[in-house]
């Protein structure tokens, strides 16, 4: 698909089973079952080929949406790291403090 430009091709592919593909496959399957129910056919037994087709289309769309999201987040991370590298004075390391220095002393009231 053309969603991801050529510079995104170097990213590792997402897993075949990811949350977007599973969710959209379920939506496709439920859509086919809802169509069967609206046509007064038995929802699970009739049109199994359409159920498989709708689930496959949902899986395909979810996979490519995950691929596009991975590319977008990688591009944003690259831009942010480049900005940090070019402006180190804006991102000076903070001094290390212990937890005891942060919290106030505890005095119970009785």
UniProtKB/TrEMBL annotation:
Q: What is this protein called?
A: Uncharacterized protein
